[in-house]
Each structure stands twice: as structure tokens, then as C-alpha cells.
Specification:
Blueprint (H helix, E strand, L loop, with lengths): L1 H23 L5 E5 L6 H17 L3 E5 L6 H8 L7 E6 L1 H8 L11 E17 L7 H10 L5 E4 L5 H13 L4 E4 L3 H9 L5 E5 H10 L2 E6 L25 E9 L4 H14 L3 H10 L2 E2 L4 H22 L5
Parallel strand pairs: 1-2, 1-3, 5-6, 5-7
Antiparallel strand pairs: 3-9, 4-7, 4-8, 4-9, 4-10
Helix pairs in contact: 2-9, 4-11, 6-11
Length: 321
């Protein structure tokens, strides 16, 4: 009986500790793991959002870039972190793709991490190197068909949504471009600017600066409608590629076991962040929809993309270790 009483007391103490953690969270800096190198699309979302959340929560949100393996290394670190609210993961649609593409992962996206809220939703854009002779999608497809196996499509890494976008485009357009993986969006974009690769698919928010600077050539956006941020770029569908629609999203997760009260505070803080005109304007310039969805809505988005990209993985016969 004494052992039972001790166990009960320990359980009560643990619950009390979690309650106390939730009540005064955050009382120290919070680490936000970004599972890609600095300078990519995830950083474009993470840094302004972290700064605004820090103001709202009264504690610094410290960015920790942990790139590699299509974001799965950083996601694995977040999944194994103490569930006390002081480690947050800002991941993207790549997480849903990895769940579909990798044979094994060091975590289970749907069990080891809890979705909190969306951070941004972007149309994707197909951008080509300036040396590429094509200026429209029909011209690009025609050039690729005239050079089978000689052209390439870069990506942020094997098993990312950009990788699968290359495969999806090959199938939809009837072309045969070789996939070239890089260690993140930043390196892939630099390779494109340098003319090492022919085209990439990227979230508009991380490509918009290079597009406006003229260092890369936009061909199409892959959303259902043109982006208000760059309305002169046509969609893939209006350019003749029926049904070709890809969007990118970014969101926040916490390790499983994090007190629900902490998750609610974090989601509330994101909603408040996007009520700020400055952050809303930043997102509008990037061509993004603001985040702040409910955890349930975010989970539904994740589940839908795991199913969508799983189909692409199976049809392209992609397997990653």
C-alpha cells in the first residue's frame, strides 16, 4: 500500500508541475527549431513571426536552424525534446511529404508532434535560370521535350515537397528532367541564380525577392489563382497544364505531451501576431495568407497532404531511407 501511495503522490506532483508550467509559460526564452539552413523559405516565415511572438509572449524566441535530410533531422530533435513548451518546431509541407516518402523516420509526425497552428500558406512558383531560353510554360515544356534527359529540376532536398513537385511536373507535362537535390532552399536558389540548374519549384515568399531583383525568371505560379503579390505571373492551369496545383504551408508543432494550456497560449499568440498590421503587411508582400488556424484545422491540412503526396510517391516509385 505504501508503494501505491508513493506512486500516486508522484503522479499528483507531476500533474501539479505541468499545471504550474502551463500557468507561467513562458518564463524563459523559447527555442524555435527551423529544420532547414538559414536563408530559405522556412527562415522567411520563422524570423519575423518569432520576433512578433517574442513581443507578445514577453520572452525571446530563439531560432535554431537544424538542416538536413529534408527537414527530418530538425523535426526529430523537436519530437524528442522535453514537452514543456520551451521547444517549438516551425516545419512546412515538407513534413507531410517526408511522412509519405521516407521508409523510416526518427519520429512519427502524427504521434510524436502535436500540430498547433498554421504560420503561412503560399502559392508555389516555378522559376527558371535566366539562361533558360523559355519565357512561358509552353515554351519550357517544348524545350524540355526537345532535350529529354538533358535538363534538370533542383530542390531543397530528397523527400521534400520541391522534390515531389519536380516529379509531379515531369508526369503532368510529359517531360524528363533530372532531379538535383540541395541541402535546403537557399543553396538550391543560389544554384539556380548561378545557372547550375534549369528550374526549381519554390514557395513564392522565398522566391519573391529574387524574382523582383531579376536574378531568376518566373514562369508560372502553381496556385488556383494568380497571386496578388505578383499578379503578372500566370498560373500553370491557365498556361495549359490542367489540374496542376501546388501550395506550400508552414506551421508550428510542439512535442507530444506538451500541456494543452501551453499549446492554446501559443496558438492564441499566433492569432494576435497576425492581427498586427505590420506582420499582415509583411505576409501580403510575400504573397502569403496569414496563419492562426485551429489545431484541428491544421491537422486536417497535414493529413490531406500526407495522402496527396503519398500518391505522388507511389506513382513515381520514390523510396528514401
Amino acid at each position: 500500500m505504501a508503494v501505491g501511495i508513493i506512486r500516486l503522490a508522484l503522479a499528483v506532483a507531476a500533474l501539479a508541475s505541468l499545471h504550474a508550467t502551463a500557468q507561467d509559460w513562458p518564463n524563459k526564452p523559447v527555442k524555435m527549431i527551423v529544420p532547414f539552413p538559414p536563408g530559405g523559405g522556412t527562415d522567411t516565415v520563422a524570423r519575423p513571426l518569432a520576433a512578433k511572438l517574442g513581443q507578445i509572449l514577453g520572452q525571446q524566441i530563439v531560432i535554431d536552424n537544424r538542416g538536413g535530410a529534408g527537414g527530418t533531422i530538425g523535426a526529430g530533435l523537436a519530437a524528442k525534446a522535453p514537452p514543456d513548451g520551451y521547444t517549438v518546431l516551425l516545419y512546412s509541407v515538407h513534413g507531410a511529404v517526408a511522412a509519405a516518402a521516407y521508409k523510416t523516420l526518427p519520429y512519427d509526425l502524427q504521434k510524436d508532434l502535436v500540430p498547433v497552428t498554421t504560420a503561412a500558406i503560399f502559392p508555389d512558383v516555378l522559376v527558371a535560370a535566366n539562361r533558360v531560353p523559355a519565357k512561358t510554360l509552353p515554351e519550357l515544356i517544348g524545350w524540355a521535350k526537345a532535350n529529354p534527359g538533358k535538363l534538370n529540376c533542383g530542390s531543397a532536398g530528397n523527400g521534400t515537397s520541391r522534390h515531389l513537385s519536380c516529379e509531379l511536373f515531369n508526369a503532368a507535362a510529359g517531360v524528363n528532367a533530372t532531379h538535383v537535390p540541395y541541402k535546403g532552399t537557399g543553396p538550391a536558389m543560389q544554384a539556380l541564380i548561378g545557372g547550375e540548374i534549369d528550374w526549381v519549384f519554390e514557395a513564392l515568399g522565398s522566391a519573391v525577392g529574387q524574382i523582383r531583383a531579376g536574378t531568376v525568371r518566373p514562369i508560372v505560379v502553381t496556385s488556383a489563382k494568380r497571386s496578388p503579390a505578383l499578379p503578372e505571373i500566370p498560373t500553370a492551369m491557365e498556361s495549359g497544364l490542367a489540374g496542376f496545383e501546388i501550395t506550400s504551408w508552414y506551421g508550428l508543432w510542439v512535442p507530444a505531451g506538451t500541456p494543452p494550456a501551453v499549446t492554446r497560449k501559443l496558438q492564441d499568440a499566433v492569432v494576435k501576431a497576425f492581427a498586427d498590421p505590420e506582420l499582415k503587411d509583411t505576409w501580403a508582400k510575400l504573397g502569403a495568407e496569414p496563419g492562426g488556424s485551429s489545431p484541428e484545422a491544421f491537422k486536417a491540412l497535414i493529413d490531406a497532404d500526407v495522402a496527396k503526396w503519398g500518391k505522388v510517391v507511389r506513382e513515381a516509385k520514390i523510396t528514401l531511407d
